[in-house]
Amino acid sequence: MSMVLANGLSMHVEQLAPPEPASGARSTAPTAVLIHGLALDTLASWYLTLSHPLAAAGFDVVMYDLRGHGRTQRPPEGYALDDFVDDLAALLATLDVTGPVHLFGNSFGGTIAFGYAARHPERVATIATIEAMPPTAVWLRLVPRWIGNAAAYLQREHALAGNNPGRGERASRWAKTIGEVLAATTLARDVPASRLPAEERIAAIRCPVLCIFGGESAVDEATTDIRRLLPRARIVTVPGQRHSVLVDQPNNIRDIILPWLREAGGQHCDDHQLARIDQ
Q1: pTM of this prediction?
Q2: pLDDT averaged over the chain?
Q3: C-alpha to C-alpha distances, 197 to 17, 111, 119, 189, 265, nearest whole angstrom
Q4: CA 123 to CA 105: how far, in whole Å?
Q5: Of the listed ranges 72-81, 144-153, 247-256, the one predicted with least confidence
Q6: Rounded Cα gap, residues 202 and 65, in angstroms
Q7: Is-contact 241 248, C-beta < 8 A?
């Protein structure tokens, strides 16, 4: 574990290195940045799923806890989308990551990835999102519902924990996490009040984009703006899965993302390692 000062915050960052290059070879590993979602999520959802396959495929992997989440500092306010995008930009500068990066975003983490790419299109090689929307008026309209769902989840998990001792520890931990973030910060107020990038800036994103959704989640609402603004994006639906598809189906997500990376960003990837993993 390492703590990094970026954008005035003490941020929890985890990094995984790719395999050592052959003796005498100079490492040119591309950087993959893994961004998690709001309230319940932390970098652990990536660490336990896709981070190691990406490192084995030849990427320098960077994961971090968003402001107010996990072990990263929790300021009482400052939770608009621009704040999260500023954090990402500052973190990359602090880590001296200068080349184009491959952004991976789960849920709100994907919205941050799109927001960063809209602001810095030249800094992004590919974008792969899971259960995420670009920051548009449709997304902004849906945010209060999702935050309300998180609050309802908090209450439901408290009740279920009391009725199911085997579920108690995990439910208590998740409920505590959501409760602390919502109670100690202005997140629930700031995110729905976020300033949106101009739609033409989102439409100007030219890097390859992959969007993965669970078949049982709100796919139709989420994909409308993606198809309209990013018509070249590849959209993949995983049947029978809901919003937690990354954690519930990590092998399936890996098998979707790694071949796409070879096809879409092969010039940045270690083809030998990708081929080995896909076998």
Answers
A1: 0.89
A2: 87
A3: 33, 11, 8, 19, 25
A4: 16
A5: 144-153
A6: 25
A7: yes
